[in-house]
Design goal:
This protein is of the alpha/beta class. It has 14 helices and 13 strands. Helix content is 43%, strand content 17%. The longest helix has 16 residues. Bound molecules: pyridoxal-5'-phosphate.
Length: 340
């Protein structure tokens, strides 16, 4: 039996032996009482890494973003966000459903940014007809693309000048940092809050963190509790995250190199338009009608991928060059067998 090459997401990784060992030996307390030493250590470390006053360990990135929006906004407020952003499109409408906070989605530019003029004209005047524009939500990386540092600076300066807070969904912030060579603190600098994920490319089984000012994090702690995210001996999971920060950050460049290798190997296949990856996500456009058949064909070859509108592969800790070569061969095979 050939091993499965699972390129559906960088969330599919299994904790390594070293990570499991760190989890098993971590000193624990009760984090709802605030006395789990492993959680405290991780939160302090994350706050320092991101250049913020405080941080809060969260069960998931979705909950972290939700808690961030609810800590910035009240019922009847709105957040400005991209059509493709996770905080708008992929979180089941949580901010609206649970927070009474309305999203104001905007179309993205080609590079994934939200045009500053578009942001500015979406900010509503103080008028009883309108929701109160309160927050700008950006994402980095977005669909594997790194948002330029100068853009992030300009967008957060604009938000601030208009009295808006700004939140960065940095589920893959480490990928952005490793790919661009920019420090985490520089990327995070203009934002009032930043959310990061340990369960994506960093390879932890569970966990995110939200960082910001101390009073913001105090509010976030209450919303996290209300959302059911106050966990007890959660140092078990914080230990995995801490281990990931020690061992799985710099190696992200290997994932980026594999993604690049895959995009090259898929190049030149007629019927497939491959986007050059900036980090660990490879997208390819093809006739949408072919997607289900292609995904099924890949699965029969032990290669797992996803695709709603486009074919998507994500590289991570648990794939290697052999797996990438198998994935590319399976795609090539499908197109050479007259399916076009
Ligand atoms: C994965 C992801 C999240 C959070 O997802 P969870 O599965 O809830 O941890 C948030 N934002 C982005 C951009 C993501 O990719």
């Amino acid at each position: 039996m050939m091993p499965i090459v699972d390129l559906r997401s960088d969330t599919v990784t299994r904790p390594t032996a070293g990570m499991r060992e760190a989890m098993m030996t971590a000193p624990l307390g009760d984090d709802v009482f605030g006395d789990d030493p492993t959680v405290i250590k991780l939160q302090e470390r994350v706050a320092a890494m991101l250049g913020k006053e405080a941080a809060l360990f969260m069960p998931s990135g979705t909950q972290s973003n939700l808690v961030a929006i609810m800590s910035h906004c009240a019922r009847g407020d709105e957040y400005i966000v991209g059509q493709q952003a996770h905080t708008y499109r992929w979180e089941a409408g949580g901010a609206a459903v649970l927070g009474g906070v309305q999203p104001q989605p905007l179309e993205h530019e080609e590079d994934g940014t939200l045009a500053l003029e578009r942001i500015e004209s979406a900010i509503k005047p103080d008028d009883a007809h309108f929701a109160r524009s309160r927050l700008l939500c950006l994402e980095n990386t977005l669909g594997g693309r790194v948002m330029p540092l100068r853009y992030l600076e300009a967008a957060t300066v604009l938000a601030k000048s208009k009295g808006l807070m700004s939140h960065l969904d940095g589920a893959r912030l480490f990928n952005a940092s490793v790919a661009s060579g920019e420090q985490l603190q520089s990327i995070a600098a203009g934002f009032d809050s930043v959310s990061i994920c340990f369960s994506k490319g960093l390879g932890a089984p569970v966990g995110s963190a939200l960082a910001g000012k101390s009073d913001f994090i105090a509010r976030a702690r209450r919303w996290r509790k209300m959302a059911g995210g106050g966990l007890r001996q959660v140092g078990l999971l914080a230990a995995a995250a801490d281990y990931a920060l020690d061992h799985h950050v710099r190696r992200l460049s290997l994932d980026h190199a594999l993604a690049s290798e895959l995009s090259v190997a898929l190049g030149g296949i007629p019927g497939l338009k491959v986007q050059v990856p900036q980090t660990n996500i490879v997208f390819a456009d093809l006739d949408k009608g072919l997607l289900p058949g292609l995904l099924e064909h890949l699965q029969s070859r032990g290669v797992l991928a996803t695709g709603v509108d486009r074919l998507r592969f994500v590289t991570h800790l648990d794939v290697d060059a052999i797996g990438i070569a198998r994935a590319a061969a399976a795609v090539r095979d499908y197109f050479s067998n007259d399916h076009t």
